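User: tokens in, sequence out, please.
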């Protein structure tokens, strides 16, 4: 029997799901705790940082950071270091991110690049919508450490077609990016006329 245990982690805004090749499935708090001072560091057994439940339990002695608060990697030094620490401390074997939830293609590309530095595979998440799937396929083709591209057949053959004009070509286990401008599709105009459509407008000023 192999002594190697493979671990997969799906980083969430408040909790992270973990699955292992031995059948263990659990969730932990998506927190990183940084020792506040020398006394706190001594309390933590000489460590500068702790993760998950241990970070929450020692919240009086550490500065708590939620690296994926509000669904994206926070653009500050501590949060970026927290995500980096998860990789550098070998807390993940596969790095999975969602282009929509983690700040777009550029931010996801940074995550994939950092994973590549440590010879870790990168996986792009689906289930967020047809635009996310197409953007993820473009990203996966670009990233040399892309392991797989997640897709959901029920969505791909179902309601995704109701939302966008074009779908990616998926054949024999391979996904192909379209050669049209942008990510290769457009929102169907009739979507905006639906009674259940909610429109949010953001003023970029």
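Assistant: Sequence out:
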């Amino acid at each position: 029997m192999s002594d190697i245990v493979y671990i997969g982690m799906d980083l969430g805004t408040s909790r992270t799901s973990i699955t292992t090749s031995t059948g263990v499935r659990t969730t932990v708090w998506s927190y990183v705790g940084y020792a506040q001072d020398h006394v706190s560091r001594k309390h933590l057994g000489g460590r500068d940082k702790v993760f998950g439940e241990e970070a929450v339990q020692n919240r009086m002695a550490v500065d708590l950071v939620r690296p994926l608060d509000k669904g994206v990697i926070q653009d500050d030094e501590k949060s970026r270091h927290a995500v980096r620490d998860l990789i550098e401390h070998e807390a993940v074997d596969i790095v999975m991110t969602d282009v929509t939830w983690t700040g777009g293609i550029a931010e996801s590309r940074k995550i994939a690049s950092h994973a590549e530095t440590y010879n870790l595979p990168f996986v792009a998440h689906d289930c967020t919508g047809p635009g996310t799937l197409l953007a993820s396929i473009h990203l996966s083709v670009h990233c040399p450490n892309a392991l797989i591209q997640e897709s959901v057949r029920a969505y791909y053959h179902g309601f995704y077609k109701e939302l966008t004009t074009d779908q990616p070509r998926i054949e024999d286990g391979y996904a192909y990016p379209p050669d049209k401008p942008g990510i290769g599709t457009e929102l169907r105009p009739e979507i905006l006329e639906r009674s259940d459509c909610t429109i949010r407008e953001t003023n970029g000023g």
